[in-house]
């Protein structure tokens, strides 16, 4: 059981709650391994409302629902349906809540998740509301670190390469700032470094932060969390090209270190494929944790775990 | 059991048949409440062919199928598939009937449902064929009135605000004209009043009809069934704007009356959100009845209820 | 059980393997008939990745999965998702393999299936990779012939009307060339006759091949396998029109003969609808075999049959 009916923001995730979700996640991962699918939610229907396409999050929620034998309803071609005829989000949620027992929604509009959760009579999960929040991703990221390092405190973590605009980095750093003695090094093109506001907030929560143009992962880093640079963020194509080649993890940067490499994916150029075979490369494992973490959330919000 | 293999038109729905469907619907609503999902159709596969996007009808049929534990197959992106390569509807149905045990279809072409039902070897449900028919919507509307008022006869009903082009109003008025002593008042912009043909048909079936520019719901109305005005129906934007504000139910129009407010949704401007909290506002309840009504139809057409 | 983890090409399908798949297919067809759905794969999740729309293949795989009570995950609107952000096919497969127990993929790129199967840790089925291969279609075609004629050798078969560019004809002729004493007559517009390479390969495998401008099916043909002409293959619209009317099976061409008519569908003009009532017309039966054949493949590749 969780102390809230809906998961909207990673700020709801205290260490105690995270701990309880991780325990259920471990159990779910075991169940996938031993049984493939379990009957836990076979009396429930999950609504998947993806108003923005998102293959990764969508498929991982589908898999979570199917592994729990829940029924699924989903909007076909959500963006081109009657949802666009001017109907309010509140009205839409009042409809969908009567078709399902829990609603998972991705929506382009920041803040839409809070509105939907407030309206809904059934539990609600935010699967990403614009640039605002994506709390299930934070949980997956934190779970991956926990499985690799056995702790969420006393970590030396590198974040790159676009910390400014990454919902994933914003949420994960905030989540980890609740734990003792963490140290974050941000790297990447100068214009994509985290905002001063973000740094101040992390610092005031007790995290040591620094910005570096270059980082040596062999210098005792526990984790590197990287994402791709997006061309559309650069006015000058030549500058994008330069940064694309510069901010790129190679085998030599990692091999022999204790540093676990995470990436919310899709991976474009930020990690060379030669890295994939290193034991440090945990980004595909991280993607796979999406299923048990989301199974845990569905089950807990429905009072079944 | 129903005396026909396929539901194409609301003209198939006699009072006796409606009564039997409502009894099964009550039972399905109870089952959702007590069990969430039941095994009734777990040996069946339902095909959902939505050639026009329709989130509401689509999701409610999905929910009905999933609550009965039926399998589902559906065309991904129906309008952009091989269905458009020039294949006939008959050929398409001959294919889909071999993939499923019952077919639910929405199609833009009036009359397509009759062609499909005629071709299909498996039961067929019309989920809307252009401006022609949408019989499951009529059943949901009638069921809502029955639950609110306990009868389908001796009703004083207001219909607005576009009775001319509304498939829902055409079908529901026709269905209700089978019952004794009903009185319909149509209101809305003059150009969107029902056709003389429609009025003549209703009158010849014994319904008293009148057209009014303005209606007071406190004057003994049992039901108000309203839909939105569609901008594209007005050549003059200013005229649309004027009518949009004029034909709009406010709290004061309704509060204290016995009048149940129905709307096939989506709701745009035709009902102010301040109405939502009144006990008269049954439009979201109406949407929720889509699931048990469609469960009843699926089960009955498959000989399982 | 099959001697390979993934089905990529019809060249994997030896007579012995085909025989074992047909036996399981017969069993699956019986199970559909008697039970509707069976629990065989209810502990498995099937991923359906359709990067090209394909209603027929998609729905038939869905039906196969649902009749076996497998869970399903699928990309909503695959072509417009993050899959297009530049992520490699290998990365995509590494993600989807962690969401499912078997992957079915259709992809526009010839050769993509081999890359995906090579990457995937879970079994993989090629549901069409561009103009390259579509092995499940070949199996369905061969199964249809086997059910109609009781054999895959000693057959006199007409192929038309576009043998040059048809993935189905390429794969089926190759598959059948493994059997003794088959004779193929190709017909159609001169520019759509099979390539010399294809003819040489068939001949070197022992098939007698000939090209004919016109074919009399009453002359002892066992099977006619036809497909539609595609307008876009003709530069001159008048030439298309001429060929469209010329290469078209009529009732008189077939009635009274022993020739079974197959078509991978959709059927446009290549078979007149007056043919549909003849016992020779087996193309809809052929479409229906898609379900048990694909059930057999899913079950066998998952070690369950």
What is the element layout, followed by pairings?
The structure is a homotrimer of 305-residue chains.
Chain A (H helix, E strand, L loop, with lengths): L5 E2 L7 H21 L9 E6 L4 H13 L3 E4 L14 H8 L5 E6 L4 H8 L4 E6 L5 H15 L6 E5 L6 H10 L6 E5 L8 H9 L3 E5 L10 E4 L10 H10 L4 H4 L5 E3 L20 H6 L1 H12 L4
Parallel strand pairs in A: 1-5, 2-3, 2-4, 4-5, 6-7, 6-9, 7-8, 9-10
Structure, explained:
3 copies of one chain form a homotrimer. With 305 residues, chain A is α/β, with parallel strands linked by helices. Chain A folds into 2 domains: 6-133 and 289-301, 3-Layer(aba) Sandwich (Rossmann fold); 136-287, Rossmann fold. Chain A is 38% helix and 15% strand. Chain A is built from 11 helices and 10 strands. A 5-stranded parallel β-sheet of chain A has the order 1-5-4-2-3, with helices on both faces. The first copy, chain A, has a 5-stranded parallel β-sheet with strand order 8-7-6-9-10, with helices on one face. In chain A, helix 5 crosses helix 11. The longest helix of chain A is centred in the first third of the chain and has 21 residues, at 15-35. The radius of gyration of chain A is 19 Å and the shape is globular. Chains A and C meet through helix 2 and helix 10 of A and strand 3 and helix 3 of C.
């Amino acid at each position: 059981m969780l102390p809230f009916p809906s998961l909207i923001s990673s700020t709801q995730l205290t260490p105690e709650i995270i701990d309880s979700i991780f325990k259920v996640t471990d159990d779910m991962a075991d169940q996938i391994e031993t049984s493939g699918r379990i009957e836990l939610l076979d009396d429930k229907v999950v609504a998947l409302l993806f108003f923005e396409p998102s293959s990764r999050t969508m498929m991982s929620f589908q898999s979570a629902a199917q592994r729990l034998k829940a029924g699924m309803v989903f909007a076909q071609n959500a963006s081109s349906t009657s949802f666009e005829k001017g109907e309010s989000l509140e009205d839409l949620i009042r409809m969908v809540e009567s078709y399902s027992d829990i609603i998972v929604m991705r929506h382009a509009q920041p803040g839409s998740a809070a509105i939907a959760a407030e309206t809904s009579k059934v539990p609600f999960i935010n699967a990403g509301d614009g640039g605002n929040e994506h709390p299930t991703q934070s949980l997956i990221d934190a779970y991956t670190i926990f499985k690799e390092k056995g702790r969420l405190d006393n970590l030396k973590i590198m974040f790159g390469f676009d910390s400014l605009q990454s919902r994933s980095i914003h949420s994960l750093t905030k989540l980890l700032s609740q734990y003792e003695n963490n140290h974050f090094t941000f790297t990447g093109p100068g214009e994509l470094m985290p905002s001063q506001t973000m740094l101040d907030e992390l610092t005031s929560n007790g995290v040591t932060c620094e910005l570096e143009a270059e980082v040596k992962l062999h210098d005792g880093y526990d984790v590197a969390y990287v994402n791709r640079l997006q061309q559309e963020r650069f006015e000058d194509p030549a500058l994008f090209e330069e940064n694309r080649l510069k901010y790129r993890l190679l085998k030599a940067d990692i091999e022999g270190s204790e540093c676990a490499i995470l990436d919310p994916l899709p991976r474009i150029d930020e990690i060379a494929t030669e890295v994939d075979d290193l034991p440090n490369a945990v980004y595909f494992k991280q993607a796979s944790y999406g299923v048990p973490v989301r199974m845990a959330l569905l089950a807990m919000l429905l009072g079944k775990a």
